[in-house]
TrEMBL record:
<keyword id="KW-0819">tRNA processing</keyword>
<feature type="domain" description="Gcp-like">
    <location>
        <begin position="31"/>
        <end position="152"/>
    </location>
</feature>
<dbReference type="GO" id="GO:0002949">
    <property type="term" value="P:tRNA threonylcarbamoyladenosine modification"/>
</dbReference>
<dbReference type="Pfam" id="PF00814">
    <property type="entry name" value="TsaD"/>
</dbReference>
<comment type="similarity">
    <text>Belongs to the KAE1 / TsaD family. TsaB subfamily.</text>
</comment>
<dbReference type="InterPro" id="IPR000905">
    <property type="entry name" value="Gcp-like_dom"/>
</dbReference>
<protein>
    <recommendedName>
        <fullName>tRNA threonylcarbamoyladenosine biosynthesis protein TsaB</fullName>
    </recommendedName>
</protein>
<keyword id="KW-0808">Transferase</keyword>
<dbReference type="GO" id="GO:0005829">
    <property type="term" value="C:cytosol"/>
</dbReference>
<keyword id="KW-0963">Cytoplasm</keyword>
<dbReference type="InterPro" id="IPR043129">
    <property type="entry name" value="ATPase_NBD"/>
</dbReference>
<dbReference type="InterPro" id="IPR022496">
    <property type="entry name" value="T6A_TsaB"/>
</dbReference>
<keyword id="KW-0012">Acyltransferase</keyword>
<dbReference type="GO" id="GO:0016746">
    <property type="term" value="F:acyltransferase activity"/>
</dbReference>
């Protein structure tokens, strides 16, 4: 059986990353580089391809961080992924940035239950709840964008989450005091702040095996907000 080969790219948050799965081998690049994604992402892609000895046309699929995250960052990521996929003649797999962060804290800290939250600005967070199933973090419920107080009220309407939960992402850095009431024992991860393409690969592999890859023209971003604000604070997305 031929080795599965999937490239992953992500620019949805302040981090920029590319990673490549070749059978059981992994190659990756990651850097926290706000507002510099357009310059860094393609060299990262080339670096992991060079390290693996592969070319784009040898890939089976390309995965991308579909959001939520920065509007500009999500658009850069999907545009790059579509351009690469068109050139390589391969399908695309969209991966949630919230799920990727949950997968990252499983990889680095062995977490089984994870709450992921990205600071969405305007006193809101992008949020998802995940639990480990067969080596992959799976969404429980739905991903949402909420005011932190509203989120706590909604999720704890029938009581706080039982047991120990790992909390990951900039949402907990910014609104940790408000979000602390989500679980009986909430531990904020010190290892993962942003998603990484490396952690999208197990999720992309599972999606590929489940037949969830789509043609390039069907790939779409996920913003969660119905209306995207164009009024930005200085230096922020």
């Amino acid at each position: 059986m031929n080795e599965l080969k999937i490239l992953a790219v992500d620019t949805a948050t302040e981090a920029c990353s590319a990673a490549l799965l070749v059978g059981d081998k992994l190659f990756s690049r990651w850097e926290e580089a706000p507002r510099d994604h357009t310059r860094k992402i393609l060299p990262m892609v080339q670096a992991v391809l060079d390290e693996s000895g592969l070319s784009l046309d040898q890939l089976d699929a390309i995965a991308f961080g579909r959001g939520p995250g920065s509007f500009t960052g999500v658009r850069i990521g999907i545009s790059v992924a579509q351009g690469l996929a068109f050139g390589a003649g391969v399908p695309l797999i969209g991966i949630s940035t919230l799920a990727a962060m949950a997968q990252g804290v499983y990889r680095q800290e062995g977490a089984q239950k994870v709450l992921s939250a990205i600071d969405a600005r305007m006193n809101e967070v992008y949020f998802g709840r995940y639990e480990l199933q067969a080596g992959c973090m799976r969404l429980v419920g739905e991903e949402v964008v909420r005011d932190p107080a509203q989120l706590v009220s909604e999720l704890t309407g029938e009581g706080v989450l039982a047991g120990r939960w790992l909390a990951v992402g900039t949402g907990f850095e910014t609104y940790g005091e408000q979000l602390n009431g989500l679980a009986e024992a909430l531990v904020i991860s010190q290892q993962v702040r942003f998603p990484a393409a490396l952690d999208m690969l197990p999720l992309a592999r599972a999606a590929w095996l489940a037949g969830e890859a789509v043609p390039v023209e069907q790939a779409s971003p996920v913003y969660l907000r119905d209306k995207v604000t164009w009024k930005k604070l200085p230096g922020r997305e």
